[in-house]
Design goal:
By secondary structure, this protein is mostly helical. It has 10 helices and no strands. The longest helix has 29 residues. It starts with a helix and ends in a 7-residue tail after the last helix.
Length: 202
């Protein structure tokens, strides 16, 4: 597939196979060398498409990569098991189960690169953090409404406390998903004494 052919036939249907190949190529190259060294040319070559095929879909490398991350870290659905602990256990298990191994391997490198790359940081927030934070916030608010949690809990802070240990463990384990097996519910149970009803001071 040549760039010339891409330009001559801009209206032809987009190939789902090419789209998937581009996303996969972006992830593979990011794992190998980080996002800073990633180029549209390299992605096109790895995916076996022309650059025009990529630019028709994404305006920038960051936009492409945000979708690539989203493709391997699908947002979790929020269950209603009847208890806040059950909801958290299901949503955390589903969130981790829906993440491909590539997501864990690439995350440490991406977070390092994002430290001084606002566009990449925003892409990670949109694809990874916001959907998971929103799911947890819904569960916590529902738990407070049920009376299972304190009505005055700081939802944002508790969300940080639930997610933070998992991110830390993934980073220190070099992106090995086995390092956080069973960890979310252990974190929840550890925090329960501090966020359960009647646990406040005074």
């Amino acid at each position: 597939m040549s760039e010339t052919a891409d330009v001559r036939r801009p209206g032809r249907p987009r190939s789902p196979e090419a789209h998937a190949a581009i996303l996969r190529a972006a992830l593979e190259l990011a794992v190998e060398g980080g996002l800073r060294g990633l180029s549209m040319e390299a992605i096109a070559a790895r995916a076996g498409v022309g650059k025009a095929t990529i630019y028709r879909r994404w305006k920038s490398k960051e936009a492409l990569f945000a979708e690539a991350i989203g493709s391997i870290a699908l947002a979790p659905e929020v269950p209603d098991t009847g208890s806040v602990r059950g909801d958290f256990d299901q949503v955390s298990g589903a969130a981790l189960g829906r993440m491909a191994p590539e997501a864990f391997r690439v995350l440490p490198r991406l977070l390092a690169d994002a430290a001084d790359d606002p566009e990449l940081l925003e892409a990670l927030r949109a694809a990874l953090l916001r959907p998971r934070r929103a799911a947890l916030a819904e569960i916590l608010r529902r738990g407070a409404e049920r009376g299972e949690l304190r009505a005055d809990i700081d939802v944002d802070l508790v969300t940080d406390m639930l997610i933070g240990p998992l991110i830390t463990r993934v980073l220190t384990a070099g992106g090995d998903p086995r390092a956080i097996e069973g960890m979310p519910i252990r974190v929840w149970d550890t925090l329960t004494a501090g966020i359960g009803p009647g646990s406040g001071v005074g």
